[in-house]
Amino acid sequence: MVCVTPDVAGISGKSQLLFALVFTTRYLDLLTSFISLYNTTMKLIYIGCAYATVYLIYVKFKATYDGNHDTFRVEFLVVPVGGLAFLVNHDFSPLEILWTFSIYLESVSILPQLFMISKTGEAETITTHYLFFLGLYRALYLINWVWRFYFEGFFDMIAIVAGIVQTILYCDFFYLYVTKVLKGKKLSLPA
Question: What GO molecular functions are on record for this protein (predicted)?
Fold first, then answer.
C-alpha cells in the first residue's frame, strides 16, 4: 500500500496567484451581463478553483510550500502587461482593458513556475505532467482559433499573439518533457 502525503512542494504559488488574477479580471463580465447558466457556472468554477489552489498553497499546505525557490518578481510581469493592455486592446473601456490584461497575463503566468524549476534544477513527475497539460491546453487553443477562423470567420489578434507567446514559452519544457519524463526519467535540467 502506498501512502501519499499531500504537499505543494515544487508548485509556484506566484504562478497560481497570477492565474487567479487572470480569471478574476477575465470574468468580471459576470457582474454586468448574463450569457447562460452554463457560462456563469464555468466562470465561477474557474475563479473558485484558482483561489482554492492559492489557499491550499499559502494556507493549508504552507509547511510544504517552497517559498525560498519561488522568488520570481511578478511585478516584472504585471506592470508591463497592464501597460500593454492599456495601450493595445479592442475597445478602450474598463472591462475590455481588464479582459485584454487577463489574456496577456495568462500568456506569461507560467514564468514563475518555469523560473522555480530552473532554480531547483528539477521537478517532480506530477509537476511536470501538470505543466505539460497546462501547456497543451494553450496549444489546443491555437487549433481552436484556426477552426473558428475557418468555420466562423472569427479572428482575434490579441488572443492569437498571446497564445503563440505562451506556447513558445513552453517549447523548451515540452522538449524536456518528451525526452525525459515520457521515458520514465525525472525532469532535471542540465548543469
Answer: ER retention sequence binding
Identify whether 108 is part of a domain.
yes
5 lies in some domain: no
Q: Provide the whole-model pTM.
A: 0.90
The whole domain housing 176 covers 13-183
Q: Which three cell numbers stand for residue 71?
A: 522568488
How many whole angstroms separate alpha carbon 93 and alpha carbon 148? 25
For 85, the grid coordinates are: 493592455
Q: Is residue 118 part of a domain?
A: yes
Name the DSSP class of 29. G
Which contiguous run of DSSP H or E holds residue 122? strand 122-123
Burial 90-126 (b: 16+ CB within 10 A, else e): eeeeeeebbbbbbbbbbbbbbbbbbbbbeebeebbee
Number of domains observed in the structure of the chain: 1
